[in-house]
Amino acid sequence: GYGTHNQPPGTWSDDTSLTLALADNLLAGGDRPDLECIAWGCTEWYYKAAYTPHGKVFDVGNATAEAIKRLKKGVAPEKAGGSGERDNGNGSLMRIAPLAFYMFGIRKAEERFRIVREVSSLTHAHEWSVAACYIYVEMLNKLRMGRKKKTAYAELREDFARGVPFISKATLAKFVRILENDISLLPEEEIRSSGFVIDTLEAAFWCFLTTDNYRDAVLKAVNLGEDTDTTGAVTGAMAGLAYGLDAIPQEWRDQLAAGEEIRRIAIKMPRWDMFRKTA
Q1: What is the mean pLDDT of the chain?
Q2: What does the DSSP 8-state code read for residue 196?
Q3: In terms of Cα–Cα distance, which of 42, 86, 204 is closest to 135?
Q4: Which of 49, 70, 161, 213 is least enclosed, having the fewest CB within 10 Å?
Q5: 3 in helix, strand or coil?
Q6: Contact, 128 vs 92, CB < 8 A?
């Protein structure tokens, strides 16, 4: 507590706010992601402090802020996100995790990629950001299905080794350290935790794969420094699926700000892993 933004312990940042906005509005309009509803959730957060722990927005990335301003002006959600190389912050990666539940039963990888691209593109439309989100959600999917983390990571790399024709080779080349090599073997000094989306993804995978419990994974993530909340959020989603709620230290859960609001959204969120038809 009382660090960069002088917030009390248990406070969550924009990463969790936008994750909650996605979870709360993911299927508000039917049986597929409703981009207009998700966009509404994002603008409610930015302009009205919805989904915040203390009724105040205190942290937001530049690319995310500009995209939400475009949404507010009426720009279509699929066209709101920045699409240049300089628009590859981690603002869509940090909030995309709820899609792991929606993906249950969607067997075609290209269809999963299309959904990830649409949801990422509300704020980050460049192919690097979209690919990072897709790699991440694919890993989350495997963890959600009960794979142990090393098995999940091995399967992920095997999937990409077989070929992913809907992502360009130039873009895939940006993710060699995760997809072709074993990033867990790298020393800490070779891991960066900046706001660049690929750095964040690499750091989160490294923290998750080089620890064996929730507490150590997220502490390792935030202690890398730089963009601590996002590295922690991305790592935390993987660790949460891998180890379960009970693995999160009780004292952390007890001091969590607005815990009942998080619980409300979690319970309300469509649990497609339970009732989507797999046919």
Answers
A1: 93
A2: B
A3: 204
A4: 161
A5: coil
A6: no
